[in-house]
Fold each of these.
Amino acid sequence: MAPGWLPQVSRAQAMSTFKGCLAYTLVFALVFTRAFYRLNTYPITLSSMVIVSIAAQPGSSTGACLDAGALAAVGVGMGAVMFVILGHLGHAAVAQGFIFAIYVYFMAIIKAQSMRFFGLSLLAILMGFNGIYTSALLGGKYSAEYLKAYLEAYAWGFAIVFAVNLLVFPTSAERELRELMVDALEHMSTFTHLLAKTYTVEITQDERTVRDALNASIRADYGFLQQKTAQVALEVNWTRWSMADYSNMLARIRQMQQGLITSYSNLMVMEQYEPQSLQIIKEGLTERATGKTFLKLRKGIDLAIADIVQELGVGGRTHHPVAPGEYSWEDFLEYTEPSTDNNLESGEGRPKLLERTTSVESPAFNAGFRKMSLRLKNEVDVYSSTPVGSRRPSFNEEHTGKISPEHPNLNFDGTTGASTPKAATIIDVKPLDRADSIRQAWAAFKNHQNQHVADLLASGTLTDGILRVEQPGPSLRDAFLAKQPDHIAARGLMSSTAVRANITDASQRKDGKVKATDSEEKAEQMEEGTTSTTPAVEMGAAGVGPTGSPEQIAGTTVLRVLSFIFGMGQALDELTALHEAVVPKDDASRPRKKIHLHLLERACLSSPVWKGMPFREALSKLTGVSYADEKVTLWQRFGQFEKLIRSPTSLYAFKTTCAVTIFAVFILAPSLKTFFIDYSLNGGLITIVVAMAPVLGQGIFTWVIQILGTGLGTLYGLLILRIFLHVGPHYFNPYGLTSLLAVFAVPTCFIIYTKPMFFAGSLLALNAAGIAVITQYVYRDIPEARRPGFDSPAYRTGKSFAALALALGIAWFWQIYVLRTPARQTLRNKLAGITFALGTYATLFQMMTESLAPIRETEGYVAPPREAVEAVQHELIRREGRIQAELLALMPLLRFSALEPAFGHKFDGATFSRIIREHQVILDRLREARTAIGTEGFPRSIKDNFTTPLAPFRDQNKRFMRALFYLVGTSLATKKPLPHDLPTMLTAVKDLQHDALVLSHRLSVSESGREIVYSHEFNRYWFFLASMSTVSYRLEACESDLAILLGSVEASPFVINERPSGGFH
């Protein structure tokens, strides 16, 4: 057993590290071979092989290596073109500098798009600069031999990388994709069990820990799947599955994840703030003997996923390979603040279990997760006479029974509840029937729950049968007198939605900051699975609390049950569809393996251009307002161009261009050219390119890892050169150098493939050590290139540090003193942009909703054409993807903001992380509302009985939502605190629930009304109601977090300080 201080290394990590070390070592083994270096006219150019052997990622999967290698080769090709251009301009230094500056600007823009293009832009700039450097060495002349030598060196580097990747323990990205899919399915299987146990109030504290961690994990799973899918597209595989198959599978998995997240959200509200609702559900399950049906359903889900996993033919992974510099949703959880209350017995103050210690990437968590997953499966195996001992049973095992609502004692294996394993009668059921059995079990369970909901609605728990929408509101004096001191205090803490039981005891944090109120805690915890540190008597998203009236409890139960059924039903529909698509009916129908050219398949699957009705035309048909495209004038286009060049990305590219150009002046200026060549300052170019970052915090981070990486690599190169000086017949013994370089590559390659955020540091360390060794060997040991008076290793090391200092000084100046871009400011502005984007999304969605269910329906109303609704739906889905990508892109900014100097204002990462998660939940709720209403809206029965009578609430919610989106976004964009008395939907949501209950109660007392209550449309409507109500609540929950970040209006410097006047005094 390895000591505790050693990292736990998986087989995949060990293989990646070994292949990376092997490729790096082979570079030196070839360079130090006489027959090899004689193939190159200028052996010094062979040092270019080093960076290729690192940047092309030979230790990753085949698809990832091809992706990185292909992009790096494109960069070399672009650099070669620039080499020719700059080489022919060697007689005109000014022209060289001007052309090179323009070239660097566009390469910097490419680099800023994604870390995926890091190798492309870096190699393109280095290769282009070689054109200036070689022309300076040759007195302003262009040398085709030098270009050929560089291209040969790069080609040999790529050959080594691809040979190692493809011939040494090759790993297909397609296989890794299937492994990640197995992981995602395993997570969802266990998550479903835990949600079911939460629904039946049987979950334990340990299970709650795993459940809360899995809620975040399944978000991260899809990010890993998307990243790996892009790599699979570059491979040619002998497999059963095409890219179309994988696209279909991933779409199903995504829908399953969203359905489970929806169910989880509703259960969290009940578990934490409405526990009596869960007790009512549990009693209903007991009274109708629905618990056994639920267990059978869990069993069916588990076996269906086992069938799919078996067909995928791989096991899960314990390590998710992430591309260098990339982040996932799970990384946001590092900013969750731990709780100090250990009162776990009462369920209050449970530790916030979504910290990195409970991540699914944690080895300790992995072990506990596997044990719990097996235990949960065994819990439902008691209903089978032939328990399945493995998560992935044999395809031919007969454990594939069928559930029938008409025969509730029939188990999945075809036995009855009274039968024993020895006397079991096995019914021969084909594996395909698994999907049908799940549908039947779910139909039976949903029918029972709908009956329970109908009974609750007809139980007469309403305090009155009056619609509050029809009642006059309180007078201004009554509303004023209704304000209690504790309510006023709570509003003073910037929370318009929550009231604490004891505001004085819980209003201060330990560090002296204002403690977040319950609305903030609930906004953070409802989705993330943690509980507040004090008993809450606040109103929930539906307007009820744990001490509410019987009417409120019944209403909350109805709301949450229907929402849970909708979310879980969506997940099960996708699971059965996935099962039917993946699991064949029999061996004869199983797709055969064949060669799949995934690149061609991906080209056929590329996002097609929307061929339906244009968006503006569709919006015009929905609203009756003309949205014709406006003609853009020449001056408007000039303004758009001016805005583009002033964008943050363009600004970063401009600063990078200036820094690189100033560095190039040292070789372009005649008086400095000798100094540049003698000190080999060209090694500093890679330092500048890596050091320049779009935001300040990232720049500080890269400076630190550059100093550590380049410094460590250079010193290690000096050390081994001194060790093997005059050892054997060589000036520097190549065998010893190669051996110790291989040893050095082990920890650095391990960091590259396990800690991607430190990729640049490891790359620079390996490159610096390699360059130092190859340079000395070429000029000391190779007879054709030998220089008797060449610098000693120590002197050369000093020159390398001089180049590092010069490059970092230039980068520091342009990063710090010229048009500084703080990461905190960028994070705040991007978050404000996301808030406005969500506001425009909500407005567009409300416009579509009003066209399907008008707030004021007039005579002669005609439903909008389906093509127009589908066009708007397509636009909404497109915006969902863009907003989701923008949310995930905030993760590195959150990290880099924490690295910036505080200057008296400590960065509150936890608060920013909460606001980001709240925005994620808002996006989830809007997506769910869009899914609920669909493209056809609600039927006439729902419109007549609900949407039309409750239309005033919808109109009010629309206005409040627009105002809150605008105020929250403006506050983030301007750093001005929000006012205390923001518009609130708390009372309106409570009245809306009351009136919906009254209307539902009126329906449930008649036979025809009960049919509506049992219908899927009734379920959809309540789910739509819950989703839209939660959006306003989440926006109001941002108030307390913004108060922590920006303070109160009275304490704002905009109020206290006098507005400065322009000019000199």
Amino acid sequence: MNGNVGTTWAASATTLEERCMAATAMPDALRQYRASHAEDILSATVEWKNRRNPLRDEDYQGIADALGDDASVVETVIADRERKLSGHVEPAWSVELQTILNRYDSEEERVERTGYATAFAPFVAYVKAELQAYMSACSLPMNDERLIEQCLSAYVERLLGIGLKTVVWELHVARQAGSLGDGDAKRQLRRYFELLATDEYRGHMYAKYPVLLRFVTQTTVHYIDFVKEMLDRVSMDRDELASFAGVGDDFRLEDMSIDRGDAHDGGRAVAMLTIGGRKIVYKPRDLHIHELFAGLVRRCERTKGFLPMRVSDVLTKSGYAYEEFVEHGTCEDARQVERYYTRYGQLLGLVWLLHGDDMHHENIIASGEYPMVVDFETIATNHVTMDMPDGTDADIRVSTILRDSLASSCLLPAKTAMSADGTSVDISAFETGEQTMPGIVASPVGLDSADAHYERNAVTFSKDGCAVTLDDAVVDPYHYKRQILQGFRNTVAAAMTIDADEWDAMLSGEDTTVRVLVRNTSAYARFADFIHHPSALKDMLDVEAILENLYVYPFRDKRIFASEYRQMLAGDIPMFTAQLTGHDLHAPDGTTIDGVCERSVRERVLDTIGHLDEQAALQSRIIRNALRMEPGMEDAHPTASVSSDTDAEHYPIELGTRIADTAILQETDGTVSWLTANRSDTMAADKTVDERYEPGAPTSGLYDGMAGTGMFAAELYRRTHDERWRDLCTRMMRSLMRRKDRGITYSGFTSGLSRSYCALRMANAGITSPEARRCMTQTVRMLPAYIDDMLPKLLQRDNPQPSFHLDYLTGAGSSIMLYLRLYDVFHDMRIVEQTSRLGRTVIRAFPETQRNADESDDMPYPTGAAHGLEGMAVAFWKLYAATGNREFAEFARMLWRKSDARRSGAKQEDAGKWCRGKVGVLWARNELAATAGADGERFFEDENGRAFPDKADINYIISAMTRVTGDKDGSLYRAFASFPYSVAAKTGTAQRAGKKSVEDEREYLRKHLHLIAPDVTMSQVEEEAERLMTDYPDLYDNDDTALRRAVINKSRNEISADDIDLYKEGYDSFAWTVALAPAEDPQIAVAVMLIQGGESSNAAPAVREIIGKYGEYSQWEKSF
């Protein structure tokens, strides 16, 4: 094939950096071009910067600086589309390309046609020839023919990963041009493959996509070098490998499975080698970190109670290693399963101690009763410094705490968002079962015909490797929470026995390197997907326009971006390492980015060891939260942090004290945050919702975040005038105002808007705060823009959840309520005018949400205040009261009539909740009844407008209660079987929380403290109790409450009030019965509760006696 690569289109594949170097090498020509093309340069620069991307104007200078380019030269070569300044340069890759093409003769050296890969036949032939020549000269015993076949298969996969999109695109171009003739799509595909086999067509395609040609050439050269290097190393290490694999003289390289992971560092990748029947994993990177991990395991195993672990064998060499292949294995009995999860907990502790992360499902194998790490790269790791301009210092501190915790390890269940719509997957090594990944990267569809195309389809993957099995069934890991937590404690206990000298020796390896994940590798996959699109493969500037977007990631040192950029241009997934004892980052090309890690891995580990008690307690809470350990379970984290002994008067203060004591205060900017468990409902690809609680900084909202906590603190200040609540509330408002809530919804309760409620409560409490006033002012000023943004969404057709844009909690209803409150503060009629505009749009949008709804259907507005018509009616009646606009009054009444129809419909479900249910209906009725409209107009003109206008609901309930006494299977049938009156009844039991009080709490603790809190002494408790009574006399005015709180404090909140009471006698159930008689027309209602009465029916005789006596002596006896 003709190897004469055209200069013009080869130059199109040169990088921006290469073009700048070429232009700079001709200073006279550069000056002349700039003088004669000033307008063109300006126009091209504006066009370049105005393309759709997240970059700011100043970022382009930053990009040039990071890459070492002169920004003015960059602007010039961008304008030089004809390559007048750089077209004369013959790039190195083009020389290699000519060698490859010159070696190929389509007649004499044709390779087997392999479908789409036929487009790259010259390259496949070249790789085959190079590897054949190398292997024939190699003295290593191997199956040459099989190995070459396997190498070519992996190589073709790499090529198609780069070029298949383009080949498929050109298939459609040829089809539309009529080049494939008539016939079905499969026949047309065969004709296209015949076309691909011709030199003429391939030459045309190569000239059209010179960037593709460059990428393929780079990949080819890198691949050949990688395979040769690997075989050279195997040959050099033959004796050691024979011993490592246990094959002796039977050494023979039989199989080689390449590309078992991403390609880094010039196309190097992990490979599976089969030597003498034994599988060995070749890893082209340093693995001295394995020695640190194995040494720590061996040291922990010397501690009593720590179960022996299995660590895979590794043959470590300079810059590469061979690792034992670990196979999945099943457990033989239930005891092995328990031991597996105890060891899993131990592994949690080991990874946490070394600050490891990325231990996802592919990196852990369940090998019988042993969880085994199969990728040690990130068993210890480091982090680079980031700039977070949009966050508060307190929130950043929370993020740092979590980054260094087990929450980031991938060993605990956690959902990772994979798309903008919230779709997420669990990639952890804990939860088993298939996971469905949204279509982040386009995948080929229908490749067996000319209809082939690309789609972003969901991809399902399994976690079979880390699944624990017993009797051919996958074990549910949530059944082994206690074992996991105990395993973690085993590691912590073992770590406490290691002295400072031992830690120093283990962490002194200056040659030990760790992998540093500067960003999620899935981000690189997205960028690779974009730059391999045919639209980007005609000119390298189009590729670089995409890669420039890497710059927006907030690395403080943008040299990291520059290295990522260059590694991706070279065809690699970017990779970085750091020394165990160093602060610098190292790129595969030898570049050192100094000082980007605030602390070395060694320093981070030693800091953890120095605060082991405190930090282990936090990790225990993170484990409990992740494993959903329920209150009352042994070792579970208590849901209530306030003692059950606290009376109602002191409860708010003690709760507030607990909140204040756990606050993370940052004096650098005067902000505050907390480490909280935030509800995180995630949606799987099948649209099922999984309710979880993820650790993080609190949200900004009133409903579930800092704005609500701020309101609580403001109210505490209003009632107590204690300055600590004023300070805490002021810090929260400052924090709220410094946050930039990116995911703002259109709710007055759950979004950034809701911080105004905190500001309103602060004003009500007499707390003067510039931030609070600014908050309210900003909220008012943003009203027109907010409404302009919201209106199109309200009117959008085919919205899958239309009510969520309109309702009282999450939509326009809540916004109307908030702005009416702000109107009361500012008395600015413009607020009312804009809010009225929003109200009128809701009225227009509402019919669309009802298009497919049945009159009696409970959706899309379920009965209740939060998402129902009732809550919306409240908002619009109050809007009517503020404006006098009859349209709003009529809409509110219409909503209430519809809600009446809903509640009387057959599909209605009774739910006793404010959010969704009849409690919310009653709340709405009270709000409507209490709000006077224009001229004092009442919402309910008569009793027909009340929440329950007839007795249908009440009669239904009484009918059900009558069956309790009248049906033979009713729980009170025997008690009322011969009773002369019809009775409607309901029974139940109430469990009293806690345990019975003891006469002497101090004596009780002396007897049981060693069981309750083994690490706490009675003298410590008594000393802490004395301090509490001295410092907080109002809260702790007796020994008992002070002693109990002291136990909790000295255990670092590991112990709850329920734990303290564990050995006390419990209460029996409280039995109760309520009854109405006569059932058909009730005249008497009786409620009986027996304190510690046991079974619920035990209260029935008293009820029977009361009703009987009443019926016997009353004037209405005959009515029974």
Amino acid sequence: MAAEFNSTLKGLNLDVNELQTEGLLYSFALNATIENFSEPQPEPYRSNMASNVFCYSVPVNEKILGHLYISEFDKTLLFSWNSLTKESKITEVQVLTKDPYTTDQINCKGATNVSYILSNPQCSSNTVVKTNCFNWEESPRLLYKITDCTLNLYLVNGLDEDRILNFDFDEEKNITLNQEFKQSDNIDCDPTYINEVDCLKTKWNPIVAEPCIVAEEINGTKEKGVYQYMIAYSTYSGIPLTGFKSLTQPFHLTEKGGGIKLNLSNISNTSRYRFLTIIAVETIKGITTYHKKGVITVNQKLFIDTDNGGENISINNLLTQYPFYKSSNDFTESNNILFKAGVNEYEKFNLQPVINLVETEWVSIVAKEGDYKDPEFANKYKSVIRDEVYTYGIKIILDNSELGPVFPLIGRAVKPSDEVLVASNVYDCNNMATQRWEVENTAPLPYYTSPLSLPELSQNCECKQIYQSGEFAYWRSSETYPNNKEIWGDLCGQPIRHFKFPDIAISPHQSNNSSYDNGNYIFPMGFRIKSDMKLIFDEAVTKGLITQEQRNRIVGYKLVRGNRVGNEGVLAKGLLYDVWSYDRKEEKDPNFKSCDTTSTPIGSFFQVNSLADPNNTPGDAVTVNLLGAMTSSNSAVISASDVVVDLNPGVAGIQTSYLVPTEGNWVYNSLTGDLTFTPINNTVLIPTPINISVNELTTGLTDNATVTVSYLEEVIVPTNDVGIGVIRWDLWHNNDDYTNRSLGPNQYHNRVPFFGRETGVDSVNASGADQVVMDQEIAYAKEAGISFFAFYWYFKWPALTVTSNNNSFYAREFFKTSTSADKNTVKSAYILSNTLDPLQDSWASPNSPPLLQIGEDMNRADYHKVLVDGVLRPLVFYHAVGSSDDKMTSLKRQNLVSAYRVNNPTAPEPYIVNLVGTSGTDAFNSISSTKAQAVGTYGSTGNASTTHAYSDVAAEDVEIWNRYKNANAKLVPMVTVGYDRRPRILNRFNYENPNNNDWSETATNAELTAHLQDAINFVIANPTQCEIKTLLMYSWNEHDEGGAICPTIIPDGNYTPHTYAINRERLDVVKTFFG
């Protein structure tokens, strides 16, 4: 019996004969899909199954790390990494058609054949991003979001910083990088963009500046009250993207009908954050409210607030602190919110050891009675309370607007006079002795008082000048700094020190005006940091506390003050004198003592503070008054007749004058209390501090003090922040004929220096042993922006006396005796040779005549100093002649430093540069073995025996820079002008190697320009290793060796004395960069 067919079956059934299939049943299907069996259609909906087609060829060395399908655009983004170029790339890929095949029906002998032809191309591909700033060695995790006008891409991979990229798209869904993520010229109103990714703008937490707000009163309708403002980077609708910042000082409107204009500055306009939300904190009749006042663009510099109110904002929203995570291992999205996992914070670092070094002072200004009615004045000059203790700290600001922890500032150290015991019955009745700082204000008298009059100082201007400044009183807590040496250093376990301001006996808060109608003067007091905080942060790098990369992230700091609520030491103050007239009392009120006053303080003291008068003009006499530094035993004002001053306590008797050889004379005026130092000349910069003894006649008490006077040496900083020195080799001086012989042949007359002349067809006179010549050289160098001449000092040639015809000696002496005003900017430095005088080992003792002379010269005002860690240090080069292995030994260095400090014991060490061989290893060893600060070379020769091309000379310089850099050595890069020594080859000298015929071309102007630019770029790109930002050039006057930039004559065949036209082309190249 035949089997019955079940006609209700649907789909694919391989067990049935195709003759039995009908309707919804199939016995065979290939690459097909049945998508629908809906009735009443007679047959199901069928379609071809999708297949793979060739779309994109991956370039060599490129690896696909991930892909993201954008369904709304029907496009796929490929994310790739090139292991060779280190480039990260995003490629947009789209399949052009869902049916990549076409049919071609051909009738052949009555049969129909169907052939399938692959259409080309099947996909489109387009690189939308290519950059070196992403670290995509690991596959990134990817998410996207589509807004009304942008495709926002989010990328994390745990290695690179988390990134955001936004793309624009058109109606055809073609995507291009949003211009806010492109590099631009940063012009506020009309920036020009280039199609390159700006890496900084792609950071999840972009680099933004800390806004600054300055308030100003205008007309308006605001209520009388107190107003403060906060600001945050935000979206155009006011949703904050950062925490709210820059809470301003209170701004008081004393009458109804005012308004406030906010002047905005330091706003980032190059990040992807394009808007700012401004919040007003309004306190009216004791009630504080918070209002959103508006949203502005980052290019807007002003905001006007003329009325009260606005959208109410919760204080909790304003206090929200946004987290700062550098990278994440993964993330996901839910309800339009991103959730990160495996987050990694930015590295935290400890700056406390260098914050401990910060120097501070109190300052006061002059105001007039009634000035605080002006809201702008009250906003700027909020005064502290005298005789009160405050805590201060530094909070660093990082480039992504993240705030670091608070690093406490340290109050001043204790002095012996602070801890003098005084009888308690002077202050109370319990007969217990106590230390002076616990019951008195120990701040000394101000060490600075402005020479301007009070009326001049009281004028309200953009920034008031300081009236007085001084040292804080000593104060310490019963609590101690934590026992963590790494953070607190020597302060570990010591009592915590805060800042106690002086009382009115030291710094009065008001002064009587002789004409009361004009009002009295008042003296608001504040806190100031004396130290250069940039140098403090740089010191953290030097000490290894942070890396240079971390230092670069520090863009600012905030001075913060501890909350004193509940911790006030002074609860109230009042006027205990005639309120209509106040003259400062110079003696304390004897009625202050409330108990038996028959006892005297235990250890009554007389105190003299040390004095320092810095930054004087070289050559000027300097006068300091000693009386202001003295505190009498009874706190009375001291006059000159109350004390006896001895300028040289080590000698019997009272010395009122003291002559210091090679420095100057100190003289004390016993009628006025003035101590005057008169230097012998303008080369004395730091005279030896003088130690004095002062005796108080009424009590016989004595105290000692040190008086220091110093002079300001001008520090010249080139416009490109890089300085340059030139090597001098001065054999052309005096009667030597080396240069005359070598430049005698006619073809070399164009190398004759500007002061020389032609004397015949094959003869010249290039002698320049003349003061006028040196002065002109200094003028040329000044015009070109040259910082210093590096004079070569040979110890061996011959004994160092004027009569010895020593050539280099003459050059140095003419420089030292020059009175040219251009020496303010063109200084001298020395290149010391390793060769020794056979008659005396010049390096063996710090007392050898050459070293003593060098030490003396390094203290001169016209000797070049370099700024290192905020300290000016004389620059010294040490050249290993004939031996690339020679290095300045520790003994040589020690003796050099000792000779330098003979007349200046506290002087900072010289900055020594070892001119060594071309090996990076040698460079590194020279520093590690001798503690020389840097290395360099005397010049390069290129392929002198073969190609002779200057391009090889420049390339050798660059190679050496990089060798030293790669050897981790600090360096002074050499810029070689040339090595065309053919004049010397033609005229052999006794010191020449007869077999040495090597030479290389001198640079053309274009070649020298390019090489100098490369050198400057190298210094700027390597600030840590090129820490003194200085180049050394070979040379100023190596005329017969083809390396000179000193101007030369233009030969004209006239052999009689006359004025030549001058060629100064190479000097002008230097001037282009430094002049």
